[in-house]
Amino acid sequence: MHPSAESLKEAGIPFESLDGLYSASRNYDTFVAKAVRLVRARAKTGNVCYCVDGGAFEDRAACILAQGRGVTVCPGVSKSAAAAAKAGVYGAFSALPATEAAARELTRPLVVYDLADRALAGDVKLALAELFGDEAPAVFVCGETARRIPLYEADRQDTYDMTCALVLPDEPLLEKKRFDLYDFLAIMRRLRAPDGCPWDRVQTHESIRINAIEEAYELVDAIDADDPDKMCEEAGDVLMQAAFHTLIEEERGHFTMTDVLTGLCRKLIDRHTHVFGGDAAAGADGALSVWDKNKMAEKHQQTFSDAVNDVPGGFPALLRAQKVCKRCEKGGWKRTREEAAEQVRQALAALLAADGDVSERLGEFLYAAAALGFRSGGDCEQALLDCVKKVQARYTAFESLVRADGKDVNALSGEERARYMAEAERDL
């Protein structure tokens, strides 16, 4: 029972504890639902005062009850604010009940209140350790006492009740072992500051444009290698490029990282109306159709030509060709696989017959090949990359065989070259 119940007993005020209801509930959500029903049932026969520890809006049941008619909410002292003060944390901080600590990304300073029992404290410890490390400095607050502990001791204390809280003060940036998005942005802003890094300060969109492309390709390489550690590193590099361009615009007063994240979240919600709205989608193809429909509406694209012409010019040529082909087909310009293959044959014949500058005929042939790849269900960009890797491997094997025989690759006869090439392909 909450310690304050003793004062009600001493004052002779009758009350009903909900501790038994809490103990009999499967989880906190079940308890909240039962508590709301019980209070509303009691209110039908007279006035009821539902008392909670701390501020009313730190209690989920109180928040639900407050939405009803004839309900008066009396202010109280916030448990999170009281715990923060006892731990020496002042100013802005994040706060949430212990039952919700595992459900989200969190930042410091942080107050986790209602640490009612050891098992819950253990769950909180594990959740926070994932973000801040086992040895993150913390303050365990219980009643009027506050004790500094490492995070791993959060479930090793003598007493747990609804007055207990775990407070994680913020740390100096250079002493942190784990960082969050806010730390990352603080570091980037520091580098761009007048007394920051001379190189970072002078960069512009144009000077680092190529970096975004390079880092994206390095992430793709890590994905192709199925290397989680490398993926983690390269994803960070891609994020840094996005943040760099954002901070440049933040300095110009155009938009901030919050604007970027708001736009991204809004886009995800608006385009997934089969998840967040009334649209239905049968399988992945249905979901993609909903996405395309919502994307055209969002971009105010009235015709399929608008979508075709909206393919980014910065794409690699083969990827851009296949994207254009895909959008043309969605707009009714469709070919069968056989028709696409015939176009490749015609384009190849025209290329072979061309005299002088063959650029136009070469472009037509390459586009026809991209269209055939799309119609065949392949990813042209990836297919070509895979083929290039195979060519590299074959040549490496070919040269190794030639050198092993003490020969010069440029002095081989046609017959020798063919023999070594065939042997290299067999070895692979």
Account of the protein in words:
The chain has helices spanning 5-10, 19-23, 28-43, 60-65, 79-86, 118-132, 181-192, 198-202, 209-224, 228-251, 257-271, 273-276, 283-298, 304-308, 317-330, 337-353, 359-375, 380-404, 414-427; strands at residues 94-97, 110-113, 137-142, 145-150, 164-168. The protein is mainly alpha-helical and 428 residues long. The protein has five domains: 5-65, no CATH class; 79-175, Methyltransferase, Cobalt-precorrin-4 Transmethylase, Domain 2, CATH 3.30.950; 181-255, Orthogonal Bundle (Helix Hairpins), CATH 1.10.287.1080; 301-376, MazG-like (Helix Hairpins); 382-427, no CATH class. It has a five-stranded mixed sheet, with helices on one face. α18 packs across α19 (414-427). The mean pLDDT is 87.
